[in-house]
Amino acid sequence: MAKVYAFVADGMEEVECLAVCDCLRRAKVDVKLVSIMGRKMVTGSHGFKIEADSLFEEITDDADVLFLPGGLAGTNNLKAHEGLAEMLKAHAAAGKRLAAICAAPSILGELGLVKGHRATCYPGFETKMEGADCRGDGIITDRLISTGRGMGWAIDLGLELIKLLVSEEEAERIKAAIQYIK
Description:
- There is one protein chain.
- This protein is α/β, with parallel strands linked by helices.
- It has one domain: Rossmann fold (3-Layer(aba) Sandwich).
- Helices cover 34% and strands 23% of the residues.
- The strands form 3 sheets. It has a 7-stranded mixed beta sheet with strand order 5-2-1-6-7-11-10, with helices on both faces. It has a two-stranded antiparallel sheet with strand order 3-4.
- Helix 1 (14-26) links the parallel strand 1 (3-8) and strand 2 (30-35).
- Helix 5 (154-165) packs antiparallel against helix 6 (168-177).
- The chain is globular, with a radius of gyration of 15 Å.
């Protein structure tokens, strides 16, 4: 079974995190919410309180995917966490998958992890995507990095990760089950 760590922080965009994680859990992917705040309870950008499964200090990098939800304050909190930055770099160096949405792809950009990749991000963050070929697409997967433009694309990112981690058929099954018709 595939394993995903979704890193949560105060100020994160709640829907970006939970829509992606909900889709993945429906596909039986082992998803863990990991707080970088030193406490399990985090407060999202719209005041929703979300309890993480684990603290950053309690995990090792044994996940298949490291996922970063956006939200401006949440992205800034994730970006400031040195341990997370080191884990992201090591994860990429080991040839493992990364995913980020909205403002959070800028973290990957500032770490040099999207250099030479096609990617997307929230409008205005392209300047932080060092060396990336930024596009206005909703979802882009280039090699082992999947990026999403913003909250309106969160379900699509969840379905994309299901395709990559489980199967196209499972992504279609989840899409039908949640009545996701575009």
